[in-house]
Amino acid sequence: MAQPQPNPTGSLLATDGKPHPRQDTLVIATLVLGAVAFVAAQFHHLHLLSSWTGLIGILTGAYGQFISVTTRERFLLVIGLGASAIGFFLGMAQGGLFGGLIGY
């Protein structure tokens, strides 16, 4: 049986030639959230932004890994997860999810 040829109109991340809109959306969301969390973690006063975007990026990336279909999707999800985790942990170290908002 012949292998299916990649669809030129399909997803950039789909190596099987089929579109994966949900997975692609999760990949993009995880990468954006990871980038925001990582950059925001470099500034002490942005700990709320970095910790929350990092946490959401970790959850988004974990679900994306669960439903991912291709290696390309998984590769980019791992990059986004790593950036989200670094942003989350640095944000937690600098004040956390609620630091300064609820008591102290």
UniProtKB/TrEMBL annotation:
Entry keyword set: Membrane, Transmembrane, Transmembrane helix
Transmembrane segments: 25-43, 49-68, 75-102
UniProt KW Transmembrane helix keyword: yes
Designated name of the protein: Uncharacterized protein
Organism: Streptomyces pacificus
UniProt lineage: Bacteria, Bacillati, Actinomycetota, Actinomycetes, Kitasatosporales
